[in-house]
From TrEMBL:
Membrane topology: Multi-pass membrane protein
Keyword Cell cycle: no
Protein's UniProt name: MMPL family transporter
Protein location: Cell membrane
Domain SSD positions: 198-330
One Pfam family from the record: MMPL
Species lineage: Bacteria, Bacillati, Actinomycetota, Actinomycetes, Micromonosporales
UniProt keyword terms in alphabetical order: Cell membrane, Membrane, Transmembrane, Transmembrane helix
Family: Belongs to the resistance-nodulation-cell division (RND) (TC 2.A.6) family. MmpL subfamily.
Coiled coil regions in record: none
Residue ranges of the TM segments: 175-193, 200-221, 233-255, 276-297, 309-336, 372-393, 519-536, 543-564, 576-594, 615-640, 646-667
Provenance organism: Micromonospora fulviviridis
Main location: membrane
Length: 702
């Protein structure tokens, strides 16, 4: 079957039934699998680093030489501001005895007193098994909260407690995010179509696409080793709904246009599919291939996001180009009630721009003084970039949640009464024969508050040395101290020393992200540029579009900097800038693709200037609606209680709105008009300009 006949299958009189039956079978098979997606979720990659990072090598050595190091710690904190009383100490001793049954191996450390006499710490390793660890941490929290002497403040912190707080905060959030996304999309579709029925069709189609995507990701995770975590699962939902509705808006707008020209709705849909397929497929390819560029990242959480997102884009494309057209054709014109597009003889020769009054006026504004428009728009975007100064990189642990959680409260209590790094000391692993020299080198490092006694491994080959830092584990000062500490212990001959621990992990994470930024960002830009060159058959236009994308990203970061500073979350999680860049480039360029493919079509028919203006006029409303829907969909991430999700939602939503309302509506059309036919160099449109069609002269005079 030829591609043209295949594309027209959903619009066929019999083909639509075959497509619907196929999707019904897919839904029956995919539904039960999509529900199981949570079962294959592995969140261990969220904090993981490449195997070659020093902190990763330190973990591997520690787990081999000191098996107990594999167990995450829970740390109970007891604080009385006026000084601990005998009753408080008795309570700590009682808790220590009770905690033994939750500690792996029954080992609970002796109480560690603060120098000011106002605080005590108990630490214990908990189970490696996820379910047993969750039960143990929950029981520890209950014990601390139950019957403490009045005035004694308690909290549970440490790696095990922080992990428990994350999963506690996200409990039920999958459903909340899905509901928020669906309600947002439903409301915007209702406003867009002003029909009590039509909005349901794309919403149902995108929900089916989401089920298919979930099922495929589940199968890939179960049988092909695809890494899925709650971050990638969250982004999957947002992408499928946002991108799927964008494609639906574009297709339905083209279908409505063709219904006025054709008495047969099947013929109208076939033409609408044929004329919109290029832009939709180019958009999907841009986003999917851009996401797959994340496979070049070293950070596991970033790398795993790529294939999951690409599956979502493919599912959305498939549903919106097969299921949606089949349902629309099956239901007929009444879906558009009360604004039903009736067949009008002679509509093919009518000026299509006459139906778009607002965008006709905007096109007139752009046509009047295009150079002033694009210079003014570029200046406004450049001014927004100044807000980047409000942002910082490196999200402290105690700012990771939008609400207060126990592990963060515990960290703050420890920081108030102990050296900053007490809760998460650096860990030096070195050859046993060099222990004394390694300890001496560590003690000489500025910023190291205390170096513990070396602990020898069971085989006698290695020692483990704790080094408490003076600064908080996630601070810049602590990272500088770890850098100095590594330099000092690496210089000890034959020590083969490695420095791990929380601060070392943060430092290596920052270095890994910097490397990923240097590799992935140019790769994404190159991929998008190649796609635009192939699509537009030009070099000048794609280069202009890429320049606008970079400017738009910088403006989005600046505008988001102002908003995030006002929200109290200006310090970005290290992975956010790269992921936001990818989404803004791949998704933001969608709207320019939708516009420029229509521009190219119109320019080939009626000439450059009238073609640009007509394309802007007839696509303005639908592309703006699509941008608002996608921005609002990413805005749904604000319901999640994790600050990185909020940061991602704000940056991407703001960036998409800037792309939609300024870049695509003003900057690109004005630049294209100012350059003239040189925009299409070296393609054939740069060498000749078709004569304007006499039937549609209006915009040529705008």
């Amino acid at each position: 079957m030829s591609p043209q006949r295949l594309a027209g299958l959903p619009a066929g009189r019999r083909g639509k039934y075959a497509v619907l039956l196929l999707w019904l079978a897919l839904l029956v098979a995919a539904g039960p699998l999509a529900v199981k997606l949570g079962e294959v979720q592995d969140n261990s990659t969220l904090g993981a680093l490449p195997a070659g990072a020093e902190s990763s090598r330190a973990v591997q050595r520690a787990e081999t030489a000191f098996p107990d190091s594999r167990h995450p710690l829970a740390i109970a904190v007891y604080v009385r501001d006026t000084g601990l009383t005998p009753a408080d100490r008795a309570r700590v001793d009682a808790d220590r005895a009770a905690f033994a049954r939750f500690a792996d191996g029954g080992a609970v450390s002796p109480p560690v007193a603060a120098a000011d006499g106002r605080a005590l710490l108990l630490s214990l390793p908990v189970s490696l098994d996820d379910e047993r660890r969750a039960e143990a941490v929950g029981a520890l929290k209950d014990r601390l909260a139950d019957g403490a002497p009045p005035g004694l403040r308690t909290a549970l912190t440490g790696e095990a407690a922080a992990e428990h707080d994350v999963f506690d905060a996200f409990s039920g959030m999958d459903g909340a995010l899905l509901l928020a996304t669906a309600l947002t999309v439903a409301l915007l579709l209702l406003v867009t179509y002003r029909s009590p029925v039509l909005w349901l069709i794309p919403l149902v189609a995108v929900a089916v696409a989401n089920q298919l995507a979930g099922a495929v990701v589940y199968l890939l995770a179960r049988h092909a080793g695809l890494a899925v975590d709650f971050q990638s699962q969250t982004i999957l939902t947002v992408l499928v709904f946002g991108v799927g509705v964008d494609y639906a808006l574009l297709l339905i707008a083209r279908y409505r246009e063709e219904l006025r020209r054709h008495a047969d709705r099947h013929a109208a849909m076939a033409i609408a599919l044929r004329r919109s397929a290029g832009a939709v497929c180019a958009s999907a390819a841009t986003v999917a291939i851009g996401l797959l560029c994340l496979l070049a990242a070293d950070l596991p959480a970033t790398r795993g996001l790529g294939p999951v997102g690409a599956v979502g884009i493919a599912a959305a494309l498939l549903a919106m180009t097969t299921l949606l057209p089949a349902v629309l054709v099956l239901c007929g014109r009444w879906l558009f009630w009360p604004f039903v597009p009736r067949y009008t003889p002679g509509a093919g020769t009518r000026d299509r721009a006459a139906d778009h009054g607002v965008w006709r006026r905007i096109a007139g504004l752009v046509a009047g003084r295009p150079r002033v428009v694009w210079l003014g728009t570029a200046a406004a975007l450049a001014a927004l970039t100044l807000g980047i100064g409000n942002l910082g990189l490196g999200l402290p642990d105690d700012e990771s949640f939008t609400t207060e959680v126990g592990s963060v409260a515990g960290q703050r209590l420890i920081a108030a009464h102990y050296p900053g790094g007490s809760a998460a000391p650096a860990e030096i692993l070195a050859a046993a024969g060099t222990a004394d020299r390694v300890v001496a080198a560590a003690r000489a490092v500025p910023g190291v508050a205390e170096v513990g006694a070396p602990e020898r491994s069971a085989d006698g080959r290695w020692v483990r040395v704790p080094a408490v830092l003076a600064a908080a584990p996630d601070s810049d000062a602590a990272r500088d101290t770890v850098t100095r500490l590594r330099t000092a212990v690496h210089a000890v001959p034959d020590a083969r020393a490695l420095v791990g621990g929380r601060t070392a992990t943060v430092l290596d994470e920052e270095r890994t992200v910097n490397r990923d930024n240097r590799v992935v960002i140019p790769l994404v830009l190159a991929v998008v540029l190649v796609i635009l060159v192939l699509l537009l058959r030009s070099l000048v236009a794609p280069l202009l579009l890429m320049a606008s994308v970079v400017l738009s990203y910088a403006a989005a970061m600046g505008a988001a900097g102002l908003l995030l500073d006002a929200l109290g979350h200006p310090r970005l999680f290290v992975g956010v800038p790269l992921q936001a860049f990818l989404f803004l480039v791949a998704l933001g360029v969608d709207y320019t693709i939708f516009l420029m493919t229509r521009v190219r079509e119109e320019v080939a028919r009626i000439g450059h200037r009238p073609g640009v203006l007509r394309a802007l006029t007839v696509t303005g409303g639908v592309i703006t609606s699509a941008g608002v829907v996608l921005a609002a969909t990413f805005g749904a991430l604000l319901v999640l209680p994790l600050v990185p999700s909020v940061q991602m939602g704000v940056i991407v939503a703001v960036g998409i709105l800037l792309d939609t309302l300024l870049v695509r509506s003003l900057l690109i059309p004005a630049l294209t008009l100012d350059l003239g036919v040189r925009t299409w160099w070296p393609g054939r449109l740069a060498r000749r300009s078709p004569q304007p069609a006499p039937a549609e002269p209006a915009l040529a005079r705008t």
